[in-house]
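Example 3.2
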Amino acid sequence: MEALCLKMATGHEIVCELLKRETVNGINSLAVKNPITFIPSPQADASQQGGLVPVPWMPTADQNKIFINYNQVMAESTPSENIMSFYNETFGSGIKIAKTMPTNPSGPPDLKTV
């Protein structure tokens, strides 16, 4: 799965899975799947901070294939590690991206045959 972070001409920033780059009716397009954007989350009360909440970018569309006119894309990048981990958990393999490898201070386990 190749995920992209796109900054659109409208100001929206979306994260999506790239299916392919293609030309549709003479227009360079990106065929994407499961695009999400982020909206501010209101504070529940004074003791909690607000944050960003992921929501579908086009909630009424079939999320399996959406064409984006590439002329409307202002910037393209790889999603950050945290966003990629969230996206994988939600739409991909379900695997979290580890920030560090776990270590075993006592060394590898002994493997004995029975």
